[in-house]
Amino acid sequence: MRLAHLGPCRIGSISFATAPPKDGCMSIAEKLNEELKDAMRCRDQKRLACIRQVKAKVQEASNVKGFEGALDDPLYQGIITTYIKSLRKGIEELEAAGARGEQLRGKYQYEIGYLEQYLPKQMTEDEVLSIVKAAIASKKISDPKQAGQVTGMVMKEHKGEVDAGLVRRLAEQELSRLAK
Questions:
Q1: 78 plus 132 within the same structural domain
Q2: What secondary structure, in 3-state letters, does 72-120 show?
Q3: Helix crossing, 125-139 with 147-157: angle to 10°?
Q4: 21, 98, 107, 159: which has the fewest C-beta neighbours closer than 10 Å?
Q5: CA distances, 79 to each of 13, 42, 54, 63, 131 (Å)
């Protein structure tokens, strides 16, 4: 039986105030705790290490001087997104190492695949392109140097749903095509 917390809550060594999610679903923190317990029971070291890494990053973020926010789903999603970006960058660097980095590259790819379940579904490239075209048309932008403005507009409306690098690349391509 799951108890609803309406006051101080303690998860591991993290203490914070929380209220149950309104839709009855588990929060990311609760899901990670359940997954952590399951990984321990199953002796799944890869999943265990991944979850512990995320929890450590959340703890680190909450200990930053001046942190006053809640440990809620948007915070977890932001931390997971940042961690996935660093893993992707690590994979790119390990590709240069060749066979020496194969094992670590596999670990990173596993962690990315596992953690993506906690993030909102990303739009496809075609969906992003249609949004970029609509943003360009709405502001009547035609100079490729204004790709940053288009990227900013799209990211403001669709934060978490689209990759900023993809938006930037598509905006530059589309504006270059219009400038010809």
A1: no
A2: CHHHHHHHHHHHHHHHHHHHHHHHCCHHHHHHHHHHHHHHHHHHHHHCC
A3: 110
A4: 98
A5: 18, 26, 8, 14, 26
**CATH code, domain with 80:** 1.10.1510.10
Contact 47, 39 (CB under 8 A): yes
Q: What is the DSSP letter of 132?
A: H
pTM of the predicted protein model: 0.69
pLDDT per position in the chain (180 positions), as tens?
A: 333 433 344 444 444 444 444 445 889 999 999 999 999 999 999 999 999 999 999 999 989 888 887 888 889 998 999 999 999 999 999 988 777 888 899 999 999 999 999 988 888 899 999 999 999 989 888 888 888 899 999 999 888 788 888 899 999 998 888 877
Query: Tokens at residue 62, please?
Result: 């909450």
Residues 96 and 137 in one domain: no
**Do 52 and 137 fall into the same domain?**
no
Does 29 lie in the same domain as 14? yes
Do residues 93 and 143 share a domain? no
Q: How many angstroms separate the CA atoms of 139 and 77, rounded? A: 30
